[in-house]
Amino acid sequence: MIKYFGHSMFSIDDKILIDPHDGGSIGLTKPNVEYTDLVLITHDHYDHNAYQLLKFKEIKQSFYGNYTFEGYKILGLRAFHDKENGKRRGETAIYRIDTGKSIIVHLGDVCDKLSEKIIKEISSPDILMIPIGGLITIDYKEAIDLINDLKPSTVIPMHYWVNGHLMPLDPPDEFLRKMGWKIRELNKNYFEDIEKGEIIYFKA
Fold it and tell me: Per its UniProt record, what InterPro entries does this chain match (predicted)?
């Protein structure tokens, strides 16, 4: 099961939580999460690192390398949060998570083109969580190009503007329109099944 809490925050099987935010500092509702087994943080920015609000067993922040946690195989890869090799905003981790049933890739706040090596490492995931809001990450055009390179089965857009959001990001409309894939709009914040060629979009 995957749950989405807005921005870049996801829960996988109620065991792994990626990029927790506190809600209020970015204008969103405070996530209703108190405990998780493992916290994964892609980079140390306030809208991704609110682990202090949680109880957990372990935490990995900006982790690069291989790690196994309770049967989940995790690969962390280094990418950049800007187009100047990290000189402006630093690095961001990309996490590839093998749950045993599916491969999930969370791209963090990637802002630059990915190397051929990284693309090879994370290609053809079952689920790709990808930023589309521009400004401090790739925008929707760059996201579509990257999706074409990575060839995921299912895409979940993240890190975009919604009503109330305090960050001046792009809304998801153009991405959803230009992708041309089937869109599954969800009023709830979780899903369990996936379908190839589908965008899963959580309505605010």
Answer: RibonucZ/Hydroxyglut_hydro
